[in-house]
Amino acid sequence: MTAVDLPPPAACCTPLHREALSAADAQSLARTLKALADPTRLRLVSLVAAHGGEACVCDLTEPVGLSQPTVSHHLKVLVDAGLMSRDKRGVWAYYALVPGALDAVARVLTTEG
Amino acid sequence: MTAVDLPPPAACCTPLHREALSAADAQSLARTLKALADPTRLRLVSLVAAHGGEACVCDLTEPVGLSQPTVSHHLKVLVDAGLMSRDKRGVWAYYALVPGALDAVARVLTTEG
DNA sequence: CCAGGACATCGACGGTTGTCAATGCGTCGT
DNA sequence: ACGACGCATTGACAACCGTCGATGTCCTGG
Q1: Phi-psi region of B100 (alpha: psi -120 to 50; beta: other; left: phi over 0)
Q2: What is the pLDDT of residues A39-97, one digit of tens each?
Q3: Which of A81, A61, A77 is nearest to A69 (CA)?
Q4: Does B43 sit within 8 Å of A26, measured CB to CB?
Q5: Do the Cβ atoms of B107 and A106 come within 8 Å?
Q6: Whole-model pTM?
Q7: At what angle do helices B39-50 and A23-36 cross, to 10 degrees?
Q8: CA-CA distance, B36 to B108, in Å (whole number)?
Q9: Which of A5, A14, A36, A59 to mutate to test the interface with B (most CBs of B within 10 A)?
Q10: How far is CA B19 from CA A10, A32, A34, A46, A74, in A?
Q11: d(Cα A11, Cα A31) in Å, to the nearest integer?
């Protein structure tokens, strides 16, 4: 894996309701949204947030009721999308929300103002 | 199609960063996000918004560069997700954003405040 | 009534995705 | 040094998704 497909920041730029999205921007935003568009990953995000902003895989496997490899896979998707960060400390890998990443997505979707 | 899987309003309820999402809420929100997590559908949304809030299929087919059945399919997905509305007037079918639907999604994702 | 246009639906096909069991890799006690 | 633990990676498989061409349906104009 060459990490060639790193998304820019997260869901950069365009307000979505002001001007027609370019094909490239649409693809970039879609990649971020696709990372969120899964019940398991949404639960992982909210579990991490409710767990004090940080949690290791072992904290998450049981609540979501899936196998450890599957949870690891989902967390990797979230990290690759720039929504979460991974910090390996000793034997444990701590996952945390990237501050502002979700808000950036929300801002693109907002049509108010 | 029995329209059995109508999503509640759109992406109801839970703030996502306050409490752990229930499995049901996660599934509901994921369904809405999945409707948005496609480059073509994002462009359709922004095209409709930039087109004065309303557009017919014939206005959208050429800008996205896809076949008419494909565009119709994507629009149906957006309508089923509660993000767009369809109004058939004569021969044409006019699609419009459901006011507040995108903002509801954005509000769930926001972690500020 | 008939021809044509706008849109929806159907059937099919390739690519992607979510899941698991099995396995590999570091790290910590003992 | 060795075994146990936490996590990542791999390979496989079923289910789903985006796309198209072909066809069906409804409205309009002549």
Answers
A1: left
A2: 999 999 999 999 999 999 999 999 999 999 999 999 999 999 999 999 999 999 999 99
A3: A61
A4: yes
A5: yes
A6: 0.91
A7: 120
A8: 14
A9: A36
A10: 23, 22, 22, 7, 20
A11: 9
